[in-house]
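Exercise (ungraded).
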Amino acid sequence: MDFFLEVLIGGLLAGVMYSMVAIGFVLIFKASGVFNFAQGSMVLFAALTFVSLLERGFAFWSAFAATLASMLVLAWAIERGVLRHLVNRPPITLFMATLGVSFIIEGLAQLLWGAQVHGLELGIKDEPLEFGGVLLSSFDLFAAGTAAALVLALSLLFSRTRIGLSLRAVADDPLAALSVGIRLQRIWGVVWAVAGFVSLVAGLLWGARLGVQFSLSLVVLKALPVLIIGGFSSIGGAIVGGLIVGASEKLAEVYVGPLIGDGLENWFPYVLALLFLLVRPAGLFGERAIERV
Amino acid sequence: MTNSPILNVEDIHVIYDKVILGARGVSLVVPEGGIVALLGANGTGKTTTLKAISGLIGAERGEVVDGRIHFAGRDVLQSAPSALVEGGLVQVLEGRHCFPHLDVEENLRVGAFAHAPSRSDLQEGIERIYRYFPRLRERRRSLAGYLSGGEQQMVAIGRALIGRPRLVLLDEPSMGLAPQIVTEIFEIVRRLNREEGVSFLLAEQNAAIALRYSDHAYVMESGRVASDGPSADLAARDDIRSFYLGMNMEGRRSFREAKHYHSRRARE
């Protein structure tokens, strides 16, 4: 039983890491209907910039600040340089544009910082801690705590501030928002900046976990099942989807893996997502349109 | 009505997607403190004209290619919608367009943000809207998506009025609403006009009610103004009566017959 709990909790905590990437998607998708495939390369860009600054002798917080600034500039440039010109285009056009942007960002990161693998040390020891007979990773706990703080901050932003309320209005009905004088472009700028910040946090945690390398941008692929399960338009859904993916892939690996072979972890979430698509296409928390009858 | 115009539209041409003509040579005037109606059937360019004035046309890949639009004496042809709202010109969209996942009060608050009101001004503005629409106060915490059509129209109008505009463009306020609600909404429009001096330009297919509540009306046909005049005069004209009010010399018969005909057709 203890072992089961250990696997379950370990999986849940790992799932939080997926959620962090998924949240970045949700923010941009909600506010502008763009499925931003470049989210993964933004995560990579953030991690790589941060680690390269550290290696060049920056202190932790000044590297953090400089990386944050560069993420804001990057997000602003994508919104301003690419997506603003594609307003009102069909979703597939926007998606293709972000796909292109993701390659540009990866190339740019490589050009700036080189292609070697970096280790990233955040100063959090990854030791097993024991809680009532269950062993947990202290790094996972730290990541989960960070994600919780991030979600709390975002939900305060959405519910308590004018910019957050405007943002929800834009997500609901962009034309109506425009008609009451909301500056859509300012809102999109803010959303992209926030998504840039989220990808910085995700990049640091993922970078510390996996090492900073180009495969980091592939975490975007693990965020897909999270989004399909949780729903594309709900931050809560991204969290729950991440937990489900994390827990189920670890449990499947440990309990089903021996029966049908290892490596289950890598594909199990996609099967789960496929089932969700068949049964509940909007995801668990996807915003279904309110319809009056 | 001898006041100077708050809105002066001169000979505007609108093109969608660079090819589709939406309006060709529309001119109209809204006097300060007036209620002006824009009548016409579906697809005659009423909405296009309103969106050209409010600048929302740009969001739908439309463009005013010719003509002039003056609001309060200023040329506003190139103004962004947000700048127009700040200047006191706001449009209430056809089909109401409330924010469905925001509650009633949040909808109203969003309407005020363009003017960056202080917290107390904002509260006062919301109270003022509730005085005009007491029903909204009762439903202040309901999500707008779950309101009735009439209540949604009230939210949409209240959301536009909270910034104390000088001119409101109302697109099809009667659409899909029960006749009683329509009258209620037009009564509020009249009150706002008389008590606060708000000018209105309203596009309506329901010509009967629009002519009753407006001072002056323009009739649109295929992208241009076909005729105009004081509303009372238009309401008395035979051609207007038969085309838009569904009446002929013997009274209201023809419209009812047409409706019967249509519903019979639909059932078959």
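Further reading is listed at the end of the chapter. For now, observe: The interface with chain A takes residues 54, 56, 59-61, 80-82, 84-86, 90-93, 97-102, 106-107, 109-111, 113-115, 143, 145-146, 148, 159-160, 163 of chain B (CB under 8 Å). The mean pLDDT of chain B is 88.
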